[in-house]
Amino acid sequence: MKTCIDCIPCFFRQALEAARLVSDDEAVAEHVLRSVAALVKDLDMDQSPPEMGQKIHRIVRERVGMDDPYRGIKQTFNEAALKLYPEMRRLIGASEEPLGTAVRLAIAGNIIDFGVNGGVQDGDLERSIRQCLAAHFADGQLAAFKRAVNEAEDILYLADNAGEIVFDRLLIELLPVERVTVAVKGRPIINDATMEDAIVAGLPQIVEVIDNGDDAPGTVAEACCQEFRRRFARADLVIAKGQGNFETLSEADKHIFFILRAKCPVIAMHLACPIGTSVLLEHKASERRLVN
Amino acid sequence: MKTCIDCIPCFFRQALEAARLVSDDEAVAEHVLRSVAALVKDLDMDQSPPEMGQKIHRIVRERVGMDDPYRGIKQTFNEAALKLYPEMRRLIGASEEPLGTAVRLAIAGNIIDFGVNGGVQDGDLERSIRQCLAAHFADGQLAAFKRAVNEAEDILYLADNAGEIVFDRLLIELLPVERVTVAVKGRPIINDATMEDAIVAGLPQIVEVIDNGDDAPGTVAEACCQEFRRRFARADLVIAKGQGNFETLSEADKHIFFILRAKCPVIAMHLACPIGTSVLLEHKASERRLVN
User: Rounded CA gap, A131 and A261, in Å?
Assistant: First the structure.
């Protein structure tokens, strides 16, 4: 997905929220906004929105002199999700359609996104779970997902955020784990999950976990490390969580299932759905450029 | 009022809305947003927000090659307000407190603001009237306003938007018109009222109307024409309608009553009121720098 005009005001809103979240100093926010303005003046609209997000958060981190300003937030949501994990696991066990329930819960966890909107409040997680459990997917998508999972020999699961990665674990447990690799971000970016969060979620005990070597809030394949690129190329099925992965991979020549909650108007427009929709969407390698 | 950090994302949102409102060409919107980014990079935060609005809309007008892109919108709202005028006049006539009702109606008309939010929908005007008629002003403000109007020898009424100027007429009719001068904008800016709108509202028949010679969506006194500056200096009471006039005159060394609906979070914070509040606020010459 390319950057669209509507993304520009949103970059500034996100930059302001990010600066305020990590620092009380208004001079930090002013510096960040002026720096973003300098970037937007000559912005390459062919790049995907997360590539700008990457630059914005590099500016924020550099200005406040912190490598991982969202570390506390990530810990908080990992803990909150781990508390909910046993009950969610029971829900899946009692479900008539466990894989569908696990996909819905993985989407519920996608509300923990500090890139799109500046915060998740108390009670939002539980509300998100209730909403997502009632979600209907587009015709045939869940059946197609089951079929693809059964047929694939090499599945790459692209995780999104900390906290959310505990929700992902519920879905990953239902996949053929011996054929699954989970990829997290290579360096801290917003509240995206890194290896530290995968470990807290207990993922390395059940599945191979790698990192992608990059700090884009999505998957910019060409910027990732060689090992990730090799694994991405080799995979015959990619499960991509969250908006950032959709924005960066919607034109990829790969067989992908996007699993996300549509949280911004531009994504909702691309997906032709209302904001807040739970999305499970197959993207076939041959469908390259279908979505742009 | 100086520009605050929160105004920056809003400048881009307003610029995008303005570009889209006057042109279907996305290249226009992109040009405008990049130009605004170039301005924001080196923005003087000591200037008031309407001074940036003035620059944004100059860019929009220049790029689309139109002197007055909001002309149609201004005509539409003048007509809509004129249709409501007889009924509103009856309301004031039947009111136990005609001046208070007229101030409330003048605030109801302040919803017709294409600078703050991109549109006013069908039914919004009637809804705004109902809401504003029930408005309570801060203690003593209405009594102070009555007293000031009775005592003043030279009242300058700064109009805000087209359409709204018909609502203003209802209030102006209750003032000592021989001592009142109404000022409109000197050149088209957003949907702000110019002399054309004052004439449509029938104001020159009841009161002297001048223009301020400028195209800021507020009153930047030093940028206005000499005649306006002379009249502004001479007035012993200024009645200033709308957010733009508050933003540009909140530090002025003049006796002013601000009459507005608080529509943006920054203004609401300055005024310590919720968004949507009907505001009648006295600002005394000696209170210079009280509000900033």
Answer: 11
Whole-complex ipTM:
0.84
Angle between helices A7-22 and B26-41 (to 10 degrees): 30
For chain B, the residues whose C-beta falls within 8 A of a C-beta of chain A are 5-6, 8-9, 12-13, 15-16, 26, 29-30, 33-34, 37-38, 40-43, 45
Looking at residue A261, its amino acid is R
Residue A286: band (very low, low, confident or very high) from pLDDT cuts 50, 70, 90: confident
- List residues of A whose CB lies inside 8 A of any B CB: 5-6, 8-9, 12-13, 15-16, 26, 29-30, 33-34, 37-38, 40-43, 45
Identify the pLDDT of residue B288: 46
- Give, in degrees to the nearest 5, the angle at Cα B203 between B200 and B209: 110
Q: Give the alpha-carbon dihedral of B166, B168, B173, B176, to 10 degrees.
A: -150
Q: Which two tokens stand for residue A137?
A: 């997917």
Taking an 8 Å cut-off on Cβ atoms, the answer to whether B33 and A16 are in contact is no
Residues of chain A contacting B12 with CB distance shorter than 8 Å: 8-9, 12
Q: Is residue A105 classed as helix, strand or coil in its secondary structure? A: helix
The arithmetic mean of pLDDT across residues B179-186, rounded, is 98
Beta bridge partners of B211: B184
Query: Using one digit for the tens of pLDDT, what is the confidence trace for A244-265?
Result: 999 999 999 999 999 999 999 9
Please state, in angstroms and rounded to a whole number, the distance separating the CA atoms of residues A188 and A196: 10
Q: pLDDT tens digits for B227-242?
A: 999 999 999 999 999 9
pLDDT tens per residue across span B9-33: 999 999 999 999 899 999 999 999 9
